[in-house]
Amino acid sequence: MANYAIGDVQGCFNELLGLLDRINFDPTEDHLWFVGDLINRGPESLRTLEFIYQMKESCNLVLGNHDMHFLAIAEGLRRPFKNDTLQELLESEKLTIYIKWLRCQSLLHYEKIDCEVGTKVYLMTHAGIPPHWSWLDALEASQEIKETLSSDNLHIEYLKNIYGNLPAKSETNLNRLDRLRLNTNYLTRMRFCKVDGELELKIKGTIDDKPKGFKAWFDHPLSIQNENLHIIFGHWAALGGKTGISNITSVDTGCVWGYKLTAFRLEDSRVFSYDRIN
Ligand SMILES: [Mn+2]
Asked: Is 231 helix (H, G, I), strand (E, B) or coil?
């Protein structure tokens, strides 16, 4: 029995099958941790989502920005972008089942895992954890989003209001929708920020492209960090799977951009990968 964190699949279905074959994945024994962005931009969003849905008992997953984007389109709140590859999924007869299932997923997952070096707490989000958040801040923020997104009464208003780069940081008296947007941006879109959590969401690129005064979120001292905690995230393909920090692991290695899909085995930190098939 082993746990594998899998990077952003983004509809790269054949590469996912290839990677699972490479790790000898056994759905009756092993667990997969998906860092989000299961779908979009790659060739087979529908087959990817179908496949993961069918083995959902063996999977933990957190939602990424592309998964949220899909939900907003599926609810008729946004139009697809030109390079989105969601059409087949949007026309699926099981669309309502997939929407409901995704709406009930979290933006944060954590679990104690017995590793070769002792017990560790693994914490997974799509983009990361901002420097100023404590454990309680992270749990409260993700719980509020989960309750809102899974609520039949609140999810439309939420999905309508998560778009935008502001507010850039926590301020006193933020209203509920601004707080939800900011916390969703932290968990699903963050790359660069200041130590107080001020976000810079326009700049992408590598760690060297940091705007003046900002750093990659994981290059700040993190309030949440302790010696047993290991953070897993995706979202930032340009890192090439490298953070330079031993207990913060990036598993997005840009499969959809022509590179590879990566699995990180939590028990022994071994990395497996499968190249993009052309
Ligand atoms: Mn992403």
From this structure: strand
